Amino acid sequence: MKKRLMSITSIALITAMCLSACASKPADSGSAAAPAGDGAAKTESGASEWDNSVAMILPGLITDEAFNQFTYEGMVKAKDELGIKTAYKENVTQDEQVEVLRQFAQQGYEIIIGQGGQFGEAVATVAAEFPDKQFIFSVGTDTFDLPNMSAATISYSHAGFIGGVLAGLNTKNNKVAMVTGEFYDTHRMMEASFYKGVAYVNPDIETTAITTGDWADTVKAREACLAVIAQGYDVLFPCLDAAGAGVAAAAQDSGNVKVVGAVADYAEDYGAKDVTAGSVVFAWDELGYRETKGELCDGKVHVLGMAENGIRPVINMELNEEQKAIY
After folding, report:
1. Helix, strand, or coil (residue 208)
2. Distances in whole angstroms, Cα of residue 299 to Cα of each of 84, 144, 146, 171, 270
3. Cβ(270)–Cβ(264) below 8 Å
4. Tens digits of per-residue pLDDT, 191-222?
5. Is the Cβ–Cβ distance between 40 and 33 less than 8 Å?
6. Is 176 helix (H, G, I), strand (E, B) or coil?
7. Which residues form the signal peptide (predicted)?
8. In order of start, what are the domains of the chain with their CATH numbers?
9. What CA–CA distance (Å, rounded) separates 112 from 55?
10. Residue 142, SS3?
11. Residues 6+ apart with CB under 8 A from 155
């Protein structure tokens, strides 16, 4: 391997250069919410310095100890600081998205966030109906050419490249696998960057990417990972929500497999210090916080990378001199 002394920050900058790289009737003001048809969305209120009100629609539960919880907590932080009136609805399915978004707009919420890569078309549909409201497609990179629709996400490109480098440094079989729930645009960006990061270490390493079909199902994640482990893949790079615990379990059960986590700190959050080489932690709370404050409502695409505190690499392995030269 050609030795190149490079810091984590430099890796992120290289990635940026290479890749150039938001129906039951909601209530009037936010706390926890039930699925459509099972109860009302919840609200919390205060006096905003902007005189804004914000509603967040989530695909999962705010107690998932992952994406949904952390973006929600970011909203709560902004509410507490600025007195913003907020509302949210959790566990919203794709079939329910348009109606829930529309109901929040009808109630007068000024900023409405579809939280997750699956919300793009639904957010665009409702944003076109309510041009006087601001909409955010969160974990997305498409504004659908609507002036009142913005997009915001963590830098999946930066995270993928750093994860790829760590995976490449840890494989003994020269076979590494990315694991995700589904592929939205941001995850395709991560996949491409992951492959670039692996090739940066060694272009001969074999790579693959698999989906589990569910972001939170730990059993599905574990079974999917055991299947690729059986094919000789000895480093796993998961990008999941609560299902990440299943990836950690599969690696621990196998005994000779390492995990390079994304989103969560796998060593700490899933008690997997024995198999975790490192993680690229996503600051979902920072994303939810900025969205709620209204900082990202300008009709543009916003990507939070390392410079914006969107991601934070955590290294658990001890690098030898050759690995340090690469990393």
Report:
1. strand
2. 21, 10, 7, 42, 37
3. yes
4. 999 999 999 999 999 999 999 999 999 999 99
5. yes
6. strand
7. 1-23
8. 22-154+285-304 (3.40.50.2300), 156-281 (3.40.50.2300)
9. 5
10. coil
11. 12, 15, 16, 21, 303, 304, 305, 306, 310, 311
**In the block, which residue shows the tokens 């048809």?**
37
Query: How many CA atoms lie within 13 Å of 146's alpha carbon, on the beta-carbon side?
Result: 27
- Give the pTM: 0.79
Asked if residues 56 and 86 have their Cβ atoms less than 8 Å apart, the reply is: yes
**DSSP per position, 265-281:** -HHHHTS-TTTEEEEEE
* Residue whose tokens read 């940066």: 200
Q: At what angle do helices 120-129 and 97-106 cross, to 10 degrees?
A: 30
Tens-place pLDDT, residues 174-193: 999 999 999 999 999 999 99
Neighbours of 285 (CB within 10 A): 17
Say if CB 304 and CB 283 are below 8 A apart: yes
